[in-house]
Amino acid sequence: MPFPDSGDATFAGSVSPGGYVSVSVKERPGNPHPSGVTVSSPALAEDSVLGDTGRAWVGAAHAVAKVKPGTYKAKFTLTYRDVPCWNEEDRDSVCDYDSTVVWSELHVEALQESKTSRWGFSYGVALGAGAAAIAAAAVLAARRRTAKGSRPS
For the whole prediction, is pTM greater than 0.85? Predict the structure, then answer.
């Protein structure tokens, strides 16, 4: 694994069963930016939404409706497909690297205790969609610059 400390993953507070909580994942300086991030935990449903802002992956995670209050481990898998190569001599190329894992903890509180239930799923979807749109625009701009630079004069 080329990235010993791959990044940090955080939840914005605790969540109630069936509720939503904001999530952010950031790679460590010097490591390539992941091309994808997934989150899994026994406390989370599989419909978590994360989007790339170019600096971090952000979005919303949905707690399982029947999860019991407590602290649960959350596994974030960072994938690296077609990312700028990590070593100096290949910086102008793209590489595929093995996925890395970052762990975090999610605190599930009883329904009336949660302070983040106001965040809602639509907030995370909006963050993820906005981040994806920004990333797509950046990719298109980079491709246009590359195409202009490769044309014969």
Answer: no
